[in-house]
Design a protein that fits this description.
The chain is mainly alpha-helical. The protein contains seven helices and three strands, in the order αααβααββαα. Helices cover 61% and strands 8% of the residues. This is MarR family transcriptional regulator.
């Protein structure tokens, strides 16, 4: 890989045209917006997403839940711990594989989703209003085609 004239090792870190850096900054800003909006419900956006996945798909092995949430297994464990402590999810041994655990939404978890939904919808509307129609879908499709 050859450097362009004038490039320095620090240039990629400072280059505002770096797509990866721009996407990471945008993702952090979006996460911060969702986390702030969901704070009154006592949830972070990743936790809310986990609860919604369990509501949609039912009980799941933790590894499958991690896959559905696009998280690695250890990150999923760190996100499930506070949800379990609060009684929003329960973790039980997998009937087929006693070494694995299955996560299930509780009634309190369903209540947490209901309490958080208005906050989530508000931030969805706010962020959606900032995007051109179809822009997010086009970006997701373009990036998904790369993998």
């Amino acid at each position: 890989m050859s450097a362009e004239p004038g490039d320095s090792p620090a240039a990629p870190l400072l280059d505002p045209s770096c797509t990866c850096t721009a996407l990471r900054r945008a993702a952090r800003a979006a996460t911060a917006s969702y986390d702030a909006a969901l704070a009154p419900a006592g949830l972070r956006v990743t936790q809310f997403a986990i609860l919604r996945i369990l509501a949609r798909l039912g009980p799941l092995p933790v590894s499958r839940l991690a896959e559905e949430a696009a998280l690695d297994r250890s990150t999923m464990g760190r996100n499930l711990d506070p949800l379990e402590r609060r009684g929003l999810v329960e973790l039980n041994p997998d009937a087929q594989d006693g070494r694995a655990r299955v996560a299930a939404l509780t009634g309190a978890g369903e209540g947490a989703i209901a309490a958080a939904l208005p906050h989530w919808r508000a931030v969805e509307a706010r962020l959606g209003a900032r995007l051109a129609p179809g822009a997010l879908a086009a970006l997701v499709a373009a990036l998904a085609a790369q993998t």
